[in-house]
Amino acid sequence: MTRWQKVTAALASLVIAGGFLFAASAPSFAQQRPSEEEILNALRPSPPKTRGLTLETPRDDAQRTFIDSIRGNTRQLTLGERKKVAEIAKTKPKIDLEIYFDYDSSAITANAEPELMKLGRVLTNADLKGSVFLIGGHTDAQGSDAYNQRLSERRAASVKRFLQERFNIADDALVTAGYGEEELKNKADPDAAENRRVQVVNLEQKETARR
User: Fold this and answer.
1) How far out from the chain centre does Cα 84 lie?
2) Left (φ > 0), alpha (ψ -120 to 50) or beta: where does 29 sit?
3) Is 167 exposed, middle or buried (0-12, 13-18, 19+ CB in 10 A)?
4) Rounded-to-integer distance, Cα 204 and Cα 130, Å
5) What is the arithmetic mean of pLDDT over 173-200?
6) 8 A C-beta contact, residue 128 and residue 43
7) Which one-letter DSSP state was computed for residue 51?
8) Mean pLDDT, the chain, as a whole number?
9) Which of 68, 71, 103, 204 lies at a C-alpha separation of 20 to 30 Å from 81?
10) What is the DSSP letter of 139?
11) Cβ neighbours, 10 Å, residue 178
12) How much is the average pLDDT of 44-60?
């Protein structure tokens, strides 16, 4: 091998090694970040099926009463309340967002701020005025159940605090819940990155939300 070939091979090895180093240290962007418009469309209430007043069912009234009971809470939701909120959320407008946190930390990082700023602008959009939102923290299955539960609760609370401080969102317009590894998005791969997420749900939509 000539001297030039040796230099070329060494440079190629350096580039490859550098590429792997970057991939290991940078956040994964496999899932494209949603735009503000996409977040807004995901959380926007569905148009009414019929014109005029929509009659509420006893189930709707029970859901509203329950949601009102947990609005503005300073305590963590109980297991029963978390499960009830999760059941209600299944039929509500929602979106999963990748909000990056440092390992074993609930502090908002510089990588997380752009996504949270987008979310804050959406939640204060006139189209969503009067809504009540669930900020649900989720983890992957690494670690113990109890550890993941506490971590998800702290992270959901951090997101709520950030939104209140930056966008002056009323305390009773944001409900937080930590689900740990209870609601895995990718059950086939419990340790997958997409399980580590914050889910935002429009629990009580504009037409029925009360202040």
Assistant:
1) 18
2) alpha
3) middle
4) 8
5) 90
6) yes
7) S
8) 80
9) 103
10) -
11) 23
12) 64
Domain boundaries, the chain: 1-29, 31-204
pLDDT at residue 150 in the model: 94
142-175 tens-digit pLDDT: 999 999 999 999 999 999 999 999 999 999 999 9
Best CA proximity match to 34, nearest among 122, 131, 159, 156: 122
Cβ pair 203, 88 in contact under 8 A:
yes
From the list 211, 209, 208, the residue with the least C-alpha distance to 56 is 208
- State the Cα–Cα distance between residues 164 and 133, nearest whole angstrom: 13
Question: Beta strand pairing status for 132-138 and 197-204?
Answer: antiparallel
Half-sphere exposure of 198 (CA within 13 A, CB side): 28
Residues 177, 86: Cα–Cα separation, whole Å: 9
Nearest alpha carbon to residue 152 among 133, 135, 134, 138: 138
Domain 31-204 grouped into CATH 3.40.50.720: no
Q: Tell me the two tokens of residue 10.
A: 């060494």
* Dist CA 84 CA 67 (whole Å): 10
How far from the centroid of its chain's Cα atoms is residue 77's Cα? 17
